[in-house]
Amino acid sequence: MKLQPRFAMLLSAILVFALTLAGCRRDPKVLRQRYLESGNSYFDEGKYREAAIQYQNSIQADPHFAPAHYGLAKCLMKLSDWPRAYAELAQTIELDPRNKDAEVDLGGLLLAGGRVPDANDRAQDVLKADPNNVRALMLLANVQVAQDQLELGLATAKKAVDQSPSNSQAVLNYAQILERSGDKAGALQDYQKAVSLDPKSIPAIIALASYYVRAKDYAQAEATFQAGIAADPHSLIPRSGLASLYTLEGKNDDAIQVLRQTKSDLKDDPQAYRMLAEYYAARGQWDNAESELASLHSDHPKDQIVTRAYAQILIQRSKVDQASKIIDALLKDNPADPDSLVLRGEIELRQDKFAVAVQTLQAAVKQNPSNANAHFNLGLAYAGTYDMAQAETEWRQAAKLRPEMIEPQRALANLALRNGNMAGLADVATNIIKIEPNSPEGYIYHSLAKFNQKDPATAESDLKKAIEIAPQNSAGYARMGDLLVAQKKTDDALKFYSQALAINPAANDALTGIVNIYLGRKQPAKALQLVQDQIAKVPDNSSFYTLLGQVEIRNQDQAKALEAFQKATQLDPNNVPAFLHLAAVQIAMGSVDQAIAGYQKAIADNPHDVRLYVALGALYENEKQWDKAQQTYQNALAIQPDYPLAANNLAYLMLEHGGNQSVAISLAQTARRGLPDSPYTADTLAWAFYYEGVYPAAVDLLQQAIKADPASPTYHYHLAMTFYKLKNWPQAKEQFEAALKLDPKFEKADEIRDLLKRGPPKS
Q1: Which of 58, 249, 499, 571 fits as disulfide partner to 477, beta carbons 3.0 to 4.6 Å?
Q2: Cα torsion angle, 153, 158, 162, 164, sign
Q3: Residue 31: how many other CB atoms lie within 10 Å
């Protein structure tokens, strides 16, 4: 068909336009600019996530386009994504070294991260090229303040204001340094000036409101936060500040109403609709937090932050099956997601599947080596397998990645305490105080370290500070009681223990302290009455019944002690000390079978507690059931391969009742490393050397054992046999006689008498 001339021309024009348009769409310079402008538009509207997407599209069109990298960096700073913001700023400067704003922004991040010298270098670089650069002067002023050069910082901040008197940010920065210098009146005037210069500046409004909060002028603070909300209805900061203010004033219903309104007004902003759940969780209102997160999960099923938070709170509330289903769904969509793997690992920790948790959390760390929470939980998993060296490594890595994270510091403190590393405990306690200066915990740890380092004055000062900070926390009073007992000031100690119990009627450490004082004063009736009175106040406290049983033992009433220990184990199947005491009473009363059955039940309830295996093994030994004893000790070592008591007892059994002597020596050495000052481990290792014919080493160890415990006939007998093998009859005879003198009915007494009759060994 022949086309009409006009139609042909029109068609040609359309085709040319289409080709031109297609060419424009393929032109990277056109694309990058279009996305940049779109990103700028979103940024100006405060839609930082949408802006970030457009900047990323611009970068995809041209990876070397510096303005897009800088735009993305500014978005990331607004979204508090500091690591990525840092990377984008560094990339911006590399692509465009003339971008001084980016260099100042990077300096600000360096300063916030504690890298003060690096921040100073950035400020000086900009000022070298432009001595009157206001933002660089502001950065330099803050660097100088961080270097404790307050007067110099104040002068530099004033210079920035002089350069640009109408610059709200410069005036605000000057006000903040003024307040720090102690000039509160001047600071208030400049905070107000910063707001008047830019009435829509959220940083200036928040700074002024925060000043009013610090000054306890809550009415003005509330009005200022409200002004911030009116100035920028899309900003979460003034809304969050207002909710925090109401909480500070005890107006919790008003705070919740603000957060509900925020959720309603900004229903498409994930940070906005999550705020109420975060509020509940931060205040330990777990029912409300769970309910809110369940609702959010239903309304926003694709919001993985909400989904993970919901799973986390379910785990925390021991609703493991529900949490597991949610995590399974997350991992089905993304099997390598490190945050979901951490949640899976937390569930496995709750289920005591420590070896499995190690594998899961190792995978999480591999996917994201900078995930501090993954390292912390991996440390817990290693601790569950009794690999304390690896546990410590992971906790230290977590603390390095997130110095403000309290959990790894707490774990390291407990590990140092367990290992008797008082210098290490003091260091960790100092870190805890830095992280939570208004919590008594760090001061209590520090006091323990200092007392054990023979510095009771510092220990007392620490505890006074703990009590001052948290007068309604019983721990500080109880620890002060312990300190005073150690100083033999028992009357004063009783006052502090009593205060602890008045604050917290369930404070077992305080009750134990008072009971020990009464028993030390030979006042068992008084101790008994106190425990009974406290049980009447807190009837379901398993630890109190354990203490009651111990007092009844001191009163020589085994039947009542038995009853108390049984009650303690019924109330808490995980109260291992109660099971140990219960078995001891049953054995003393001749009920060995009941004791064995009790241990077996306790092991079923606490399968990873090696103390129970060692106690049961010792009972089997006492009953001369050697095979069962060996197997029980082996079970303990399967859980914790370096547990010294299990290794020691198994080694001795193998030496005395058949076993591989090389294995026995290895076990004895493990025990000695774990308990280097114990006479038991010295004796066992010496006896292993005796069987190997290494007599001089055996002599040294046995002499150490006898020095630590001279009343043991076994140690004297072993030393005598070693001297006998060395053909040192005078020393052997002396030790044989010492053993008989200590216990004429000693199990080796007949053998000793026979050897004494025979006299010196033949050459």
Answers
A1: 499
A2: positive
A3: 18
H-helix or E-strand spanning residue 456:
helix 456-469
pTM confidence score: 0.70
Q: How far apart are CA 207 and CA 221, in angstroms?
A: 10
Alpha carbons 639 and 643: distance in angstroms, whole number: 9
In 356-386, which positions are buried (b, 16+ CB within 10 angstroms) versus exposed (e)?
ebbebbbbbbebbeebbbbbbbbbbbbbbbb
Residues in the chain: 763
CA distances from 156 to 122, 180, 233, 324 (A): 16, 15, 34, 56
How many Cα atoms sit within 13 Å of 682 on the Cβ side?
21
Q: Identify which of 679, 709, 685 has the alpha carbon closest to the alpha carbon of residue 698.
A: 685
Q: Coil, strand, or helix at residue 246?
A: helix
Q: In this structure, what token pair is assigned to residue 698?
A: 């055996």
Structure tokens at 491: 């009357």
Look at residues 452, 444, 433 and name the one whose alpha carbon lies nearest to residue 481. 444
Cα distance between residue 321 and residue 133, in whole Å: 59
Q: What is the torsional sign of CA 501, 507, 513, 517?
A: positive
CA–CA separation, 312 and 319 (whole Å):
10
CA R_g for the chain: 36
User: 730 vs 11, 709, 718, 742, CA distance in Å?
Assistant: 125, 22, 15, 19
CA distance 204 to 198: 8
Quote the CA–CA distance of 258 and 246 in Å, as a whole number: 9
CB atoms within 10 A of CB 185: 8
User: For residue range 417-433, what is the model confidence (pLDDT) as tens digits?
Assistant: 988 899 999 999 999 99
The whole-number pLDDT of residue 152 equals 95
How many whole angstroms separate alpha carbon 498 and alpha carbon 137? 58
Q: Are the CB atoms for 156 and 125 separated by under 8 Å?
A: no
